Amino acid sequence: MPISPSPPPDPPSVNGPSPLPREARITAALIDLADTLVDDFDPAEFLYRVAEHCMDLLDIGDAGVMLALPNEPLRLVAASSERVRLVELFELDASEGPCCTAFHQATAVDHTITGTLSPRWPRFSTRAHGAGYTPVHATPIRLRGDTIGVLNLFRRVPGPLLEADRHLARALADATAISLLQQTTLDQHRTIRAQLETALVTRTIIEQAKGFLTARHETDPDTAFHQLRAHARHHRLRLADLARDVVNGTTALPPPPDTDRSSTQH
């Protein structure tokens, strides 16, 4: 009785064979992709790690990652080899292939490549077949309902991507999207933080200018502030810039008009 062939082994990691079982590597990969909230986050290096995790965990020969800015075309951002990089660039240049369809239709696309001319994507199929690829699986990277990119998975042996690998590819795409969202939120937080820090510095300068005008014009801080603000508005100046000039002595404000406070008393 012939022995049935065993399933092909998982592709080795770029760092060599891993001693961990596949389930542990899946967990480690998802944790790694989630760890983006760091000060020295490098998006290019992160996206190459996405391709490496695809290679390590899925039964594929090569992987590519494409992303698109809003209202802009897809761009190749990471590839597991020069071979697949050239095929992916050709696919983008020809504007045909699984990745383009997966991106525009926001759905996973499978495509089998044979030696015969494909009526669906003839140029892409010819180029991919020449590079030694057979089936291709493209799964969209979706962020809050918007498709922002595609994971492209190329096999060099016949047969489509197994269902379990398709689900895992979907999970890796989702993890990529969530991680990019985390980093975008962090960047926004950093911008807000920088704005708050600027506001605090600005407030200090304004307080210094208020103190200067209060002492120089022998008035109260509220009057000094209202005078400072009115001058800035009238001359269309930034309040912080005017306050800095007042403190530095490069701009002199006239004393505020005298107010007969007694006339307002009842």
From TrEMBL:
GO molecular function per UniProt: kinase activity; RNA binding
Keyword field contains RNA-binding: no
Stretches with biased composition (Pro residues): 1-20
Keywords: Kinase, Transcription, Transcription regulation, Transferase
Record-linked InterPro entries: ANTAR, CheY-like_superfamily, GAF, GAF-like_dom_sf, GAF_ANTAR, WH-like_DNA-bd_sf
Renumbered residue ranges of the record's region Disordered: 1-21, 246-266
Domain of life: Bacteria
The ANTAR domain, residue ranges: 186-247
Entry protein name: ANTAR domain-containing protein
Organism: Streptomyces aurantiacus JA 4570
